TrEMBL record:
GO molecular function terms attached to this record: protein methyltransferase activity; S-adenosylmethionine-dependent methyltransferase activity
Keyword Cell division: no
Record carries keyword Nucleus: yes
Domain Methyltransferase small: 47-143
SUPFAM superfamilies the record matches: S-adenosyl-L-methionine-dependent methyltransferases
GO cellular component: eRF1 methyltransferase complex; nucleus
Lineage, uppermost ranks: Eukaryota, Fungi, Fungi incertae sedis, Mucoromycota, Glomeromycotina
InterPro entries xrefs: Euk-Arch_PrmC-MTase, PrmC-related, SAM-dependent_MTases_sf, Small_mtfrase_dom
Annotated protein name in UniProt: S-adenosyl-L-methionine-dependent methyltransferase
Family stated for the protein in its record: Belongs to the eukaryotic/archaeal PrmC-related family.
UniProt main location, coarse: nucleus
């Protein structure tokens, strides 16, 4: 069993500026751990990318899974405070993370076109109004407010997945039932020929969270 990354370097004040790991974070960690042997022995990644890294907990955990330190672990977050904390979390756990402050993957394409072997995204998925999403002045609210069906940010990311994933690449996406995961799977299959499965699911209070795994037909 791989231990959860140590976050002792973070203070309660840090969580006023960055999303604190919660049930959704830990579900994504469990999904990556479930696929650990597959990721190490079949994917053998060169470049990994996490969108919306927050504290850096997920990418640090992924670095621990991969173990040998040969993969480049890139993280993006729109929140500059999160980018700084991500780097600190990696350092505190002896994992090298390269954190970039940007919106989704702005600035990474076309350079990383079809280059990402492991892609992770725990998106802002909570169902809100569009106003809550786009008019909010709170950087922390942007970490969870997802707009209509909780899908407005997710739907912006979906076309980029096809551009980013390598031929052997795999994409892990956290959703809740309200995000209409079956519809997401159909979009990815029909528009981008990506296969999918529900890797893990769990109830968190009244919220059903699940991890979708996507990959190309070529595998």
């Amino acid at each position: 069993m791989i231990p959860t990354p140590n976050l002792d370097h973070l203070s309660p004040g840090d969580y006023e500026h960055v999303y604190e790991p919660a049930e959704d974070t830990f579900l994504l960690l469990d999904a990556l751990e479930k696929d650990a042997e597959f990721l190490r022995n079949e994917i053998k990644p060169c470049i990994c990318l996490e969108i919306g890294s927050g504290t850096g907990c997920v990418s640090t955990f992924l670095g621990k899974i991969l173990g040998d330190g040969t993969a480049l672990l890139i993280c993006t977050d729109i929140n500059p405070y999160a980018s700084a904390i991500t780097n600190k979390t990696g350092y505190h756990n002896s994992i090298q993370l390269d954190s970039i402050t940007t919106n989704l993957v702005n600035g990474l394409l076309p350079r990383l076109y079809h280059s990402i072997d492991i892609l992770c995204f725990n998106p802002p998925y909570v169902v809100t109004t569009s106003d809550d999403l786009y008019l909010s002045k709170s950087i922390l609210e942007k970490a969870w407010a997802g707009g209509i069906d909780g899908r407005e940010i997710i739907d912006k990311m979906l076309p980029l997945v096809d551009k980013l994933l390598s031929d052997k690449g795999v994409f892990y996406l956290l959703l809740i039932n309200e995000n209409k995961p079956n519809e997401v799977c159909e979009i990815m299959k029909n528009n981008y020929h990506l296969q999918s499965e529900v890797l893990l699911s769990r109830l968190a209070g009244r919220e059903k969270q699940l991890i979708l795994k996507f990959w190309r037909n070529t595998r």
